[in-house]
Amino acid sequence: MFTGIVEELGTLQNIQPKGKTLILTIQSHKVLEGLKLGDSIAVNGVCLTVTYFNDTFFHVDIMPETFKDTSLSKLKQGSLVNLERALLANGRFGGHFVTGHVDAVGKISKRVQKENAIYIDITFPKEFHHLVLSKGSIAVDGTSLTIFGSDKTRVTVSLIPHTAKESVLGLKRVGEEVNIEFDLIGKYLFSFIQSKNDTSISMDFLKENGFI
User: Fold this and answer.
1) Is 8-85's fold the same as 104-191's?
2) pTM of this prediction?
3) From CA 185, how far away is CA 177, in angstroms rounded?
4) What are the 10-residue block averages of pLDDT along the chain, 212 residues in total?
5) CB neighbours (10 Å) of residue 77?
6) Which residues contact 118 (CB under 8 A, 6 or more apart)?
7) What residues have CB less than 8 Å from 115, skipping those under 6 apart?
8) Is 212 within 8 Å of 192 (Cβ atoms)?
9) What is 104-191's CATH topology?
10) 8-85 classified as CATH 3.40.50.1390
11) Long-range contacts of 50-56 (CB under 8 A, 24+ apart)
């Protein structure tokens, strides 16, 4: 489990093909502190397992499914990536619940500077529109953000200067792809409602009883 609060920007040092998989070598500093073999690190919002590390970098394996269903396939040597270690049980929780399991790959369609903020429009597959809630949470490349506007195929998020400086989203431009993970609680609620034949359970029912 992660929070969507990026700890560090890492640098992709090497991409090693291995059969139908990849091994990524990522240079980092902060996330190596206290790291153990087999630990989980979110790389641009994708939960990956550390298979080797030393004082300056770590290795992670990319499975064919991960390669196909995330934007990691677009990375090149020298690319910067968002890094976050898995949440400790006694750690500070600063973002929202993020699993590191990407739901969809989106694309930046608009980027506008407004005063001290950067407004970014991101398009996504329309089959996920039911998971989008105005003022709700969304993880974009592993960064916890608030949705300020939306329609059936687009969300608008805003970056403060700190987030723009400390995450890869601040560097990305129109046309580039991003990993999207929709709000975990929203997904569970929707799945729960869909699985029930009892028509008395509705969004209004959940709101009236304090579930949402």
Assistant:
1) yes
2) 0.87
3) 25
4) 95 90 95 96 98 97 92 94 88 82 97 95 95 92 96 96 95 97 82 64 68 66
5) 11
6) 111, 112, 158, 159, 164, 170
7) none
8) no
9) Elongation Factor Tu (Ef-tu); domain 3 (2.40.30)
10) no
11) 51/23, 56/27, 56/28, 56/29, 56/32
| Cβ count within 10 A of residue 111 | 17
Domain range summary for the chain, segments of one domain joined by +: 8-85, 104-191
